Amino acid sequence: MAKRNIAITGGAGFIGSHVVRLFVNKYPEYNIINLDKLTYAGNLANLKDIEDKPNYKFVKMDICDFEAFYKLMQEEHINGIIHLAAESHVDRSIKDPFTFARTNVMGTLSLLQAAKLYWESLPEKYEGKRFYHISTDEVYGALAMNHPEGIKPPFTTTASSTEHHLAYGDDFFYEETKYNPHSPYSASKASSDHFVHAYHDTYGMPTIITNCSNNYGPYQFPEKLIPLFINNIRHRKPLPVYGKGENVRDWLFVEDHARAIDVIFHEGKVAETYNIGGFNEWKNIDIIKVVIKTVDRLLDRKEGEDLALITYVPDRLGHDVRYAIDSTKLQKELQWEPSLQFEEGIEKTVRWYLENQEWMDNITSGEYEKYYKEMYEDKDIPN
Ligand code: NAD
Ligand code: DAU
């Protein structure tokens, strides 16, 4: 096999940094090029531990810059692309959809076209190449919640050990599920997925797409539920729960997502889609209670004392009711499965944020405060 020169886009973000770390440490013989614009969500502090490794390089670049990416492909002889760069936060997409269309749609198209031109110019063309696009379960829309109290296994099979791991409806998102995105974010991701399919079907580009459920773990930007709430609990600030807190999300530890990406990049079948998830559905309010109790315990507070911080606020516009991903294909065909039970994952995550307060404090100063104020001011939440 040719030496791998892999461009990982969005490598300074949450999931991207875990993928970069895994690849840099596991494959010293590969060249790993982290390509990131460093938006508010990109943070090179996420990669401090590997930044001096000889097989790692960081390039600051906007994925919409076609010329720059084409040049980089030529200079670095890129033969693999793992594309994670995106605007990723649903709430921001509701306020500013254009940025999402620009990066997620035009940026993806720009990468595809540069890869096409470069790879088609080589004697071996697409042989040994991979364009791996990281997408989301949100493109499938929302599932019904027809069992509001939850059903016991066999609906949930792998990561289950407590009553919280129940399925809240009798359907899942499958690879064949029709796309039906609702938010500007998911619409932009769906559109980028269609372009990736089109480059395979039209030009024969060796593409793969994966659609993953909600990730949690270290290095997540605190605009997302779990790190935001851990930080607010630490500072005893109100916890803004959208609507009644009844929406269901399906949670996967981020390192398990990175492991899946590794397996699929190397062994996945070209032109296929794989769903990634751990059969781990939770109502928001239940997960919030677990996070509160874990933080309280680790901070030596009275367990549950911060439940009083829960503050119900107006719902997110177009809030999808339930996500639940069926990852049987990935588990059966490529023998991947989540390595962590949810309880272990959440304990590890809360502990990490509490032990890395400097990382959090660096992010939550300045611009973040402005964002928080703007995002939550309509919701009547004190800052
Ligand atoms: P993130 O917001 O933490 O990171 C995104 C990264 O992309 C940042 O480093 C940012 O600087 C970079 N970026 C943004 N615009 C760019 C541009 N124009 N050019 C170059 N770089 C740019 O996101 P994340 O949560 O790590 O998500 C990564 C990918 O995984 C996204 O494609 C997202 O849709 C997908 N995904 C996320 C989740 C989740 O739960 N977080 C679940 C499934 C899929
Ligand atoms: O399903 C995969 C998706 O998961 C990814 O594609 C997205 O990039 C990622 O951001 C995530 O989207 P969600 O909208 O599900 O994640 P978020 O953390 O923003 O919200 C999780 C749930 O918590 C959702 O139902 C909204 C609710 N919520 C969120 C915030 C930030 C609250 O109740 N209060 C909040 O303050």
Automatic annotation (TrEMBL):
Residues of the NAD-dependent epimerase/dehydratase domain: 6-277
InterPro entries, alphabetized: dTDP_Gluc_deHydtase, Epimerase_deHydtase, NAD(P)-bd_dom_sf
GO molecular function, one term: dTDP-glucose 4,6-dehydratase activity
Keywords linked to the UniProt accession: Lyase
GO biological process assignments: nucleotide-sugar metabolic process
SUPFAM superfamilies from the UniProt entry: NAD(P)-binding Rossmann-fold domains
Top-level EC class as recorded in UniProt: lyase
EC numbers: 4.2.1.46
Tagged with keyword Translocase: no
CDD domains given in the database record: dTDP_GD_SDR_e (cd05246)
Catalytic activity of the protein: dTDP-alpha-D-glucose = dTDP-4-dehydro-6-deoxy-alpha-D-glucose + H2O
Cofactor: NAD(+)
Family: Belongs to the NAD(P)-dependent epimerase/dehydratase family. dTDP-glucose dehydratase subfamily.
Protein name as annotated: dTDP-glucose 4,6-dehydratase
